[in-house]
Amino acid sequence: MTFMLGIRREDKNKWERRVPLIPKHISDLKEQHGIQTIIQPSPIRIFPEASYESAGAIVQEDISSCPVVFAVKEIPLDFFQRGKTYVFFSHTIKGQQNNMPMLKKMMDLECTLIDYEKILDENGRRLVFFGRYAGLAGMVDSLWALGQRLQSKGISSPLSAVKQTIHYGTLDDIKAQLKSIGDRITSEGLPDVITPLVIGFAGYGNVSKGAQEILDLFPVIEIAPQELKTLGNHPSKKHLYKVVFKEEDMVAPQSPTDQFELQDYYQHPEHYHSIFHQYLPHLTVLMNCIYWSSKYPRLITKAFLKTQDIDHFRLQVVGDVSIDINGAVEFTEKATTPDNPVFVYDPQTDGIHDGYNGRGVVVMGVDNLPCELPRASSRAFSKSLMPFAPLIAQADYTVPFDQIQLPPVIKNAIVLYQGKLTPAYHYINTFL
Questions:
Q1: Rounded to whole angstroms, what are the CA distances from 261 to 223, 249, 253?
Q2: What range defines the domain where residue 15 resides?
């Protein structure tokens, strides 16, 4: 029996060149599992159509014969067909309002939705992800933003030579140049006015690890959050400082007599409040790499920033890799794109303007950062997806939900089944 799998082209923007499955894995699906792939043509996809044809795929516009369709980003409403199964990052599980019409359309057409974001192991860790590449690109772009921001203030530094991710060829090219810039910092040092230069990381998962991988190319000294307040006494000009914040550093129980407990925080975040503001005056750059929803306290509020002397505030750049609009970073007012990656937020006017000039804090908020490293990120993602792709493609989605033959790790990622929210996702009804 031959199973059919479709791959739609990505059309979010001109930068979205990623694929969920690379040609090598398409070949493996056909040869090892009897799965035929039909892929839509695309003028911008990072892997050419000839590579897919050589791998045994059919390249054509019409993929309506495929009962299961894989994609990367959100899918336009007019693409969905009745009763089909779609596998992609839907960005609906937090009740994101801009994607509720898409979810409603899928419900009306009795579609099944499997969301990569919810393919998790028993400890809640994501198994199919681009996170490392979001962190890699996000850190590079944030360092670029910092170098340009300082230059706009008349402060020259080796960081002025950092380019945006999209202006490098490969990840190896990035690492080679950043190591060279790091050597300059070691030999020349940083200007006194920006010393100590401190990069803070909120979170310690895949995204944070990717971002730290970039920063660690520089001469770095890692310190604990508690050391920030005394760091200015004898700082090094020839190092950057790195500090990683965990949950217990960012929040505290509402009752001063209670102790922080991680699982209690996850289950009852309303019992905790943010204490993160105490670190902000000591950071030069903040990389926001945490998972956030509205039940959790924010990292930075507009109200806090408004109380600060913004013209002399040390924090220059927020790299909001997690990119929740008005979320953990309340003044992340919009998502940005690789060709217009940053804006400045002015707390006194509560306004934003594009670029890195002017009063306020620069925000880097590109919402599909891995597309800036399309080849490397697609290869890694496809590798992580391959253990699950045959099972998803070969499942029978006509049986009742409790009878579908899928392992729990995939079944738990089914948001919609035959047009209805599955039990774990009934809460989304509130947003619908």
A1: 23, 12, 9
A2: 3-129+374-430
Q: Are residues 188 and 205 in the same domain?
A: yes
Q: What is the value of pTM for the model shown?
A: 0.93
**Which residue, of 325, 349, 372, is where some domain finishes?**
372
pLDDT in tens, 308-336: 999 999 999 999 999 999 999 999 999 99
For residues 254 and 355, membership in a common domain is answered with yes
The reported pLDDT for the residue numbered 212 is 98
Q: Are strands 251-253 and 317-320 parallel, antiparallel or unpaired?
A: unpaired
Domain shared by 17 and 153, yes or no = no
Do 176 and 285 lie in a common domain? yes
pLDDT in tens, 61-108: 999 999 999 999 999 999 999 999 999 999 999 999 999 999 999 999
> 115 with 90, same domain?
yes
Burial level of 11, CB count in 10 A (0-12/13-18/19+)?
Answer: middle
Same domain for 254 and 309: yes
Neighbours of 228 (CB within 10 A): 20
Mean pLDDT of 414-430: 97
334 and 395 part of one domain: no
What angle, rounded to 10 degrees, do the helices at 131-152 and 171-188 form? 40
How far from each other are the two terminal CA atoms of the chain, in whole angstroms? Answer: 39
Is pLDDT of 237 > 80? yes
Tokens of 330: 């309340």
> Nearest CA to 112 among 402, 328, 362, 422?
422
Q: Are residues 147 and 18 in the same domain?
A: no
- Render pLDDT for 259-310 as a digit per residue (tens, 0 to 9): 999 999 999 999 999 999 999 999 999 999 999 999 999 999 999 999 999 9
Residue 18 near residue 46, CB atoms below 8 Å:
yes
Give the phi and the psi of residue 170 in degrees, each rounded to 5: -135, 175
The tokens for 33 are 């599992």
> 88 to each of 158, 224, 268, 387, 414, how far by Cα in Å?
40, 38, 30, 16, 11
Whether 382 and 23 have beta carbons less than 8 Å apart is answered as: no
Domain with residue 331: its CATH number is: 3.40.50.720
User: In the numeric block, which tokens belong to residue 88?
Assistant: 């992609």
Specify which residues 87 forms β-bridges with: 70, 114
Total tally of structural domains belonging to the chain: 2
